[in-house]
Amino acid sequence: MERFTVATGASQGQDVNGLLQIPAIRVFIGVWRGQRYSEVFGTQGQPRYPDRGDGYDLWHAVLASTADVFVTFDKRLADHVERIPDLRMPRVVRSIKELLEAVSRSDAAQ
């Protein structure tokens, strides 16, 4: 993989791989890549057109990166977040029932 350097305010370079350790950037890039992949290759060979809500999906995913659990009823967005490699947080739940089960498991573990 190519190595890129990003200049910081202190004239120091930071590896892009280091930037990917920042949860908000990791989630943004992961969801963005998923959206682009689905537009080029699609699911089951059916590419999709860009959607008006794609920008909002990115925004919601970045906001969710600060939480432990991300509740969304948007299947496509949930799939994009879940496909991000080695992402521990946020955990995606797709219904209120799943959220309540996750909370009860968390309470039981404590």
Task: From the structure above, extract its key features.
110 residues, mainly alpha, 5 helices, two-stranded parallel ribbon
Explain how this protein is built.
The chain contains 5 helices and 4 strands; from the N terminus they run ββαααβαβα. The strands form 2 sheets. The chain has a two-stranded antiparallel ribbon. Strand 3, helix 4 and strand 4 form a beta-alpha-beta unit. It is globular. The mean pLDDT is 83. 14% of the residues are buried. The chain is mainly α.
Major sheet: order of its strands? 1-2
Query: Which term fits the overall shape?
Result: globular
End-to-end Cα distance = 42 Å
Q: What's the number of domains?
A: 1
Mean pLDDT reading: 83
What's the tally of helices? 5
Unreliable runs: none
Percent of sequence in beta strands: 5-15%
Rg over CA atoms, rounded to whole Å, is 16 Å
What's the main sheet like? Answer: 2 strands, antiparallel
Fraction of residues in helix: 40-55%
How many strand units? 4
Strand and helix order: EEHHHEHEH
- Given helix and strand content, the structural type is mainly alpha
Short structural summary:
With 110 residues, the chain is mainly alpha-helical. It has helices spanning 16-19, 23-40, 54-64, 75-82, 96-109, and strands at residues 5-7, 13-15, 69-71, 91-93.
